[in-house]
Task: structure prediction
Amino acid sequence: MSESVPVLCPACRREHVYAAPAYPCACGAPVAPTLDRRATPTELVHRAWDEEWVSVRCASCGRRNQWPHPELGCPCGTVLRIPVTGSSPAPTPEAVPPPSRPAFHPVTIRTARDAVTAATLYLRWLGYGDIRRADERPPSGIRLAARRLLAQVDPTICPASVRDVECLWLTAMTESADCVYVSLAGYAEDARIRADALGVPLFVLDLTGTPQPVNDPAVILHTTGA
Result:
């Protein structure tokens, strides 16, 4: 767990204690950016896609991945961007050509239906324009289908299991389609390992409605699109 830091809202002067959320690296280890105690949080007024991410190195395997920039929502309505240290900003457009897609606009997750809606919007943003509910019912979650794609959305509070990942992959193989897994609660360690071996992109859906890539196939899909 990352270290907690005190945060003062500049709008209402309310004091908070904030700890950056940890996200699973492709190796399975939790990764969280280090918060900068000396810097002052800034109020977030306008969003820019290339400012939404920070690059953080995993202490276990050394892999450097892009993670959401830490933010704190104050009850007064102000959103604060928390400064970090020991990381580098996301690659600039000159270093990594940005996709030709507009910025993704998520929907806040309050219900299971919201999770499916958020995943559908994200898949469309990636370039899959004909998203529909799949005919078959998976062991858990909800299946979505598109041309050349089978996606599973798991809005439950239990991490996806290795069986869930394998069932999705096998079904996609029989249909000669790619597959994507989107989970609200994350993945069991053996599920992440198996997904890496099978090349299944794994995403974790945060409560803002934005799927976050948690393995290399997902990072590639997020960057290049469909």
Q: What stands out?
A: Residues 201 and 221 are 7 Å apart (CA to CA). Residues 88-98 have pLDDT under 50 and may be disordered. The two ends are 34 Å apart (CA to CA).
